[in-house]
Design a protein that fits this description.
The protein is 38% helix and 12% strand. It is built from 4 helices and 4 strands; from the N terminus they run αβαβαβαβ. Strands 1-2-4-3 form a 4-stranded mixed beta sheet, with helices on one face. Helix 2 links the parallel strand 1 and strand 2. The chain starts with 8 loop residues before the first helix and ends with a strand.
Length: 151
Amino acid sequence: MEIVGSHRSSEYSTSLRAEKTLSENRASVDYDEPFFGGGTIKTVDLKSDMPAVHDALQRLDRELALARQQRLKLLKIIHGYGSKGVGGDIKIAVQARLQELVRDAQIRGCIYGENWSRSDDLTWKLLGSNPALKDDEHLGRRNPGITIVLL
């Protein structure tokens, strides 16, 4: 798994903790059940209007609550990866929040865009349970600006 650094050491530490937690939690999720009917992923763009980190996290929480109400099983979060391509503040904060939610069993897991590829074991299992996801435009592009959330 690729670890994305940051220009600030505290952000880098947060990113490392999130990566470690993700790898620890991957095996505990049951990926055998289909995720949802049409095989599409609802996309949520957190970065479109360049919000402050706090605002992006509030938007993430609202979208997760809405997805639960709609009984969705997957979300694609577009958080960007920083204007200099080295791990932006929104990306780091969103992935840290998602890891908190995994630890608290509020979401089932997440797949960082760098791993959203057929060669990734977790992604492969997810694609096996819903082959229509193989048509996702970001699959295989190793896009660090997205994260797939398993609700």
